[in-house]
Amino acid sequence: MDAISTRGLTKYYGRTRGVEDLTMCVPEGAVYGFLGPNGAGKTTTIRCLLGMLKPTAGTSDVLGERITLDGATLRRRIGYVAGEVKLYDRETGHWHLDYVAGFRGSKGVLTKDLLDRFDFDPSKKVKELSKGNKQKLALILGMAHDPELLILDEPTSGLDPLNQEAVYSVIDERVAAGRTVFLSSHVLSEVERVCDRVGIIRSGRLVAEEGVKALLGKRLREIEVTFAEPVDPGFLDAVPGIDKVLAVSDTVLSARAKGDVVDAVIKRIAERRVADLRIQQASLEDVFLEYYRAADGDEAHVRAEGGEAR
């Protein structure tokens, strides 16, 4: 059974598009990355899946049940961490944990373990917490009851690398236990670390679904080489996967590399004396703009095998 299944899901706010004709399936026990630039429709999709918004058209099934606005029983089987955390400033972490447990009917079985792993002090009031500690509390509230489905919207925002890794480890363990994770993120390294497959949404439509390995094979890099002596501006032109070569000066060339071409670039520049080399991975949004630019023209669905409206 698919943990999430949508068919023609469409949501308009008056004349403003949220999502349009969104059809996707998320298998049980997988980590599915839901990616797209701001304004693409990610949050609208999540709110429809949670029954917080009534779609204009189409249907959604979550954990084998049809989504409706009256779905409290189903929502107890789901854990949700919002992209913008809203907490009660004057209350403590303990109060929040008890408050949420009251809605669910029992205290979360993973509460103590998560408090320890995130090194979080629940005795402090929210107004005393840093952004990172507020995010920790939101994660504990969303994950403590060990839900069958975790819906995470930018889950590591504000966390330091050590706590980010703690979140990834918890995700790994829950998936190994048969849980499903639906992850909305802008962070390419996060997607690479935890996701099996990704769906890419832009302008409200799903424009691609790919395995993570296929997506990462498309990533871009910005390269800048400083040679020890003047070099021909076309020196890198013959390297496969290199384009947009720019002669910054008679000794400095910058270029963009697509895919796994670093080895070929290094071998080429090794033919000259190199004073400096900088290779920077492009952002995930740059990958969208480069590889799915055609979707702007015809909004066609692209299926390749293996941003955010409010």
Structural summary, described in words:
With 310 residues, this protein is an alpha/beta fold. Among the domains are: 2-77 and 147-216, Rossmann fold (3-Layer(aba) Sandwich); 220-281, Alpha-Beta Plaits (2-Layer Sandwich). It has helices at 42-49, 72-75, 93-104, 111-117, 131-143, 161-176, 188-194, 212-216, 262-269, 284-291, 295-298; strands at residues 2-13, 16-27, 31-35, 57-62, 65-66, 78-81, 149-153, 180-184, 197-202, 205-211, 220-227, 242-247, 252-258, 274-281, 302-303. Strands 6-7-8-3-9-10-15 form a seven-stranded mixed beta sheet, sandwiched between helices. It has a four-stranded antiparallel beta sheet with strand order 2-1-4-5, with helices on one face. Helix 6 (161-176) links the parallel strand 7 (149-153) and strand 8 (180-184). The longest helix has 16 residues, at 161-176. Mean pLDDT is 88; it is low at 297-310.
